[in-house]
Design brief:
Blueprint lengths: L1 E4 L9 H11 L4 E5 L7 H16 L3 E5 L6 H11 L4 E4 L5 E6 L3 H17 L6 H21 L7 E7 L4 E8 L3 H6 L12 H8 L17 H12 L2 E16 L2 E22 L2
Helix pairs in contact: 2-3, 4-5, 5-8
């Protein structure tokens, strides 16, 4: 058995280190995901779910240790690793975690509704516009996993809101074909995308979809995510293949920065914003 140590309190920028470690353990017969004692961020929870699901589909063994019962996010990560589950939990501090594998459009819709309903019940409450946009973006990004990943069984979505800190986290991951391969299903783009960096930037184009039948999915999910992020001045990160795109506020301007990373054969999204 080989240990895969999960970083604690890591920023989304550290996802590259996770991808590098994943290259080492992805095909090993038995891997143990070692969780930190500290809370696990949303972006790590979904990434662990996608990694474990990828191994499960290839009949490779995965386990998790240790798990502190008081660490709710750690328990959520454990659930993601241990197998397909549906769970919503509210901790004593009032924060919410909602986690579910996104195997089909119904699952995407149900989880988005559950997230929206839970946000409406929080105290102090979030604004109706934030709740509405969270529900919409969550369902759209879940639908993207189903319609474009090629492996929806490896897809996870999670929403975390902490009303004390007044922060909202959304995260999605799958171990599917990735943005470049998905976009090249569109006859207008086939063979024309130079690399993963270009694919990420094209994926943000509204009404551009990785399908030959654009009316099935009009390509609005990532654009809606970015618009929502700009509204809240959120940090948004998207990775696929060998490229990582970060959108953040730098020197007062919203800016996209693209960098090279160890490859992730799928997609990964992290959204972190102040909501009060």
């Amino acid at each position: 058995m080989v240990d895969f140590a999960i970083p604690s309190a890591a920023r989304p920028q550290s996802v590259a280190a996770c991808f590098k470690a994943w290259e080492v353990v992805r095909d090993l017969p038995d891997v143990r995901f070692v969780l930190p004692a500290e809370p696990v961020p949303a972006w790590i929870i979904v990434l662990l779910g996608a990694m474990a699901a990828d191994r499960r589909e290839r009949t490779l063994a995965s386990s998790v240790s240790p798990v502190d019962p008081a660490n709710l996010q750690g328990l959520q990560a454990m659930l993601a690793i241990d197998g397909p589950v549906a769970n919503t939990a509210t901790g004593c501090s009032g924060f919410l975690d909602a986690l579910q594998p996104i195997r089909d459009l119904k699952a995407a819709r149900v989880l988005a509704d559950r997230v929206g309903d839970a946000l409406e019940r929080l105290a102090p409450p979030l604004s109706p516009s934030v709740v509405r946009l969270t529900r919409f973006v969550f369902e759209e990004l879940g639908a993207n996993i189903v319609q474009h990943s090629g492996r929806p069984g490896t897809g996870y979505g999670v929403a975390v809101v902490d009303p004390v800190r007044r922060r909202l986290e959304l995260a999605f991951a799958d171990a599917g074909v990735g943005f470049r391969a998905s976009l090249q299903r569109n006859p207008e783009l086939e063979g024309r995308i130079a690399d993963d960096s270009e694919a990420l930037q094209l994926a943000l184009t509204p009404r551009l979809s990785g399908t030959a039948a654009p009316r099935v999915n009009m390509g609005v999910g990532l654009k809606a995510l970015m618009d929502f992020g700009d509204l809240l001045s959120a940090e948004v990160s998207i990775a696929s293949g060998s490229a990582l795109l970060r959108r953040a506020t730098l020197a007062g301007q919203r800016t996209n920065v693209v960098s090279s990373i160890p490859p992730w054969l799928g997609s990964w999204i992290s959204f972190d914003a102040a909501v009060g």
